[in-house]
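Try this one yourself first.
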């Protein structure tokens, strides 16, 4: 199903973006080798393919997405699901695949049973096409699962935000956006949506120098090119993206 923006219906408000795409964002629930829990976010880009931040899942011994009743309501009633008589929450195991460059904070995975969740289109702004004038001060919506103290469950948090800068970092390739939302654990892997109804990029790790957090007060967002590279490398591009890019992001083999 095409989004309003894909139908050419103009800019979308934050409320419209939330209504259209909130069911496409899921919490990623993990445990490390010591059994300590963690949480991040992931978003659906079509055909059961999901994107998250590499550091959310790398090295973890147990990785799942949590599907609640709101997201169940977006899925067709399947015989397999009827028999399980889901409670409010279901955990579905995932197998992450990583960007071939170890320095790029992108992972992808596939859960075909969730392919009917809304698809978040990836923007067409490759690194070489991005300039400050085009993006600075544009409004965006950040969606993710930062933990809320005392909450009984994982709750999707939506934050209106604004692009404050476009930066090239010294420590990693690819363009990053600096947006005005405060960086919080659990937002990692979450999606940042533009007014055009496409993903501007994904929330990644905070900017650090010598392991000391910078007093920036913002979060950084990795643009879409490395996301497309990772999806293409592992054969997980949606049919829409595969058609749009016509082989540009097919696996690069020697």
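Now uncover the answer:
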């Amino acid at each position: 199903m095409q989004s309003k923006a894909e139908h050419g219906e103009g800019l979308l408000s934050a409320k419209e973006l939330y209504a259209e795409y909130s069911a496409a964002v899921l919490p990623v629930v993990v445990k490390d080798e010591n059994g300590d829990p963690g949480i991040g976010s992931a978003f659906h880009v079509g055909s059961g393919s999901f994107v998250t931040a590499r550091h959310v899942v790398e090295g973890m011994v147990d990785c799942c997405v949590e599907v609640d009743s709101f997201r169940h309501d977006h899925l067709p009633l399947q015989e397999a699901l009827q028999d399980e008589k889901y409670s409010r929450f279901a955990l579905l195991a995932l197998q992450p695949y990583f960007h071939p460059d170890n320095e790029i904070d992108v992972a992808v995975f596939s859960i075909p049973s969730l392919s009917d969740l809304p698809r978040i289109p990836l923007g067409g702004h490759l690194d070489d096409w991005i300039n400050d004038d085009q993006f600075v001060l544009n409004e965006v919506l950040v969606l993710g699962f930062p933990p809320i103290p005392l909450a009984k469950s994982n709750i999707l948090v939506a934050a209106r935000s604004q692009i404050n800068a476009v930066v090239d970092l010294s420590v990693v390739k690819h363009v990053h956006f600096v947006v005005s939302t405060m960086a919080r654990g659990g937002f990692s892997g979450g999606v940042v949506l533009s007014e055009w109804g496409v993903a501007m990029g994904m929330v990644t790790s905070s900017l650090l120098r010598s392991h000391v957090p910078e007093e920036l007060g913002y979060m950084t967002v990795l643009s879409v090119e490395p996301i497309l590279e990772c999806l293409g490398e592992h054969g997980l591009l949606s049919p829409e993206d595969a058609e749009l890019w016509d082989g540009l992001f097919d696996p690069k083999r020697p």
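Discussion: The chain is about 15% helix and 30% strand. Residues 22-119 form a domain with the Thrombin, subunit H fold (CATH 2.40.10.10).
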